[in-house]
Amino acid sequence: MQTTTSMEPDHSPSDLAHRAQEKQVLDPYQDKGLAVLQACALEDLDQLRALAQSRGGLLSDRLRRQAWPVLLGLPPSLAHDTDSGASGGGDCAASWKELPRHRDEDQVQLDVNRAFVYYPTNNREDELQEKKEELSALIVEVLRRYPYLCYFQGYHDICQVLLLVLAPSVRGPAVARLSALRIRDFMLPSLQPAILQLRLIPDILRLADPALWRHLSATEPFFALSGTLTMYAHDITSLGEIARLFDVLLAREPVFTVYMFAAIVRSRRDELFDTPDDEPEMLHSILSKLPRPLDIDALVAAAADLFDTYPPERLRVWRGISSASVLKTARGSTRVVAVQTMEDGKAFFDQQVKELEWVELLHEKG
């Protein structure tokens, strides 16, 4: 597919600073930009993680095109390929179209039809339609190549961000590794593993803020489902903000997404205490919408502090999470996921499916 200038992400007025960063990395961030490029060249994941977590994240989509593939563990030759070739390259790109249809393709199309609502904003209708076709092709390619994965509503929100930021030749492999090795729990035939992840949020609050935990004790943590399920891509309407948040979510292990939501809850402490604890519906309504404005740098710092002070092993719910969950198979460092293979992801997936089938069988017998 021919690449046009419309393939470059456009932004809403709230993203003017982000657009400026796309043109060049200016002082005082110039040194940081060079540090990002050096870390990418050396595949220094620890340094990339530190840079992604620091104020401003990875600064620009130009730098993200280099860094995100490295963080996702793509081979160096592909990770540094930022040309405009077709996804996957050459005959390989076309071959997926000959694979059997995935069972979820009809739902994919329904969701893609609703994509690109908030960004980009300055494209003509035909340009938006072209992006939707690219998004549909990206998702369907991954699902056909890895048919064991189950599509979930909101997956297209994640893929939309990667499509707008990454070079076409990198998108398919990047989405595939993200799916199998970082958000696999959400692509199982059951949502139970995703719901179990939500139970970690009250556990974090119980340790970090007992008063707030008690205040929310009657409110189920389902308010966090949309945010955690979609890496916040469904709820953040600015490409600049969601790209900056993806910097740290890709640089940290998957459980960090849960700590982010715990930090968001704590940031609304005063507002929540102004709402009676015997009105869980009202509390749910407040928590199901992200605060505006969203100070991502402050929230990332707060989440990192929560993670360091109350690591997952201190959380009671952690013991009940499958050893094949991404929360545990990616536990430790960014490098853990970077060295895992798609075959590893499939093996973990199969183990999780067997565990889910066993639990269902026990319930039927009970």
From TrEMBL:
Pfam families per UniProt: RabGAP-TBC
Identification of the protein by name: Rab-GAP TBC domain-containing protein
Compositional bias per record (Basic and acidic residues), positions renumbered to this chain: 8-25
Cellular component aspect of the GO annotation: endoplasmic reticulum membrane
InterPro entries: Rab-GAP-TBC_dom, Rab-GAP_TBC_sf, TBC20/Gyp8-like
Residue ranges of the region described as Disordered: 1-25
GO terms for biological process, alphabetical: endoplasmic reticulum to Golgi vesicle-mediated transport
Keywords: GTPase activation
Source taxon at top rank: Eukaryota
Transmembrane feature ranges: none
GO MF entry, a single one: GTPase activator activity
All copies of domain Rab-GAP TBC, residue ranges: 58-253
Species name: Phyllachora maydis
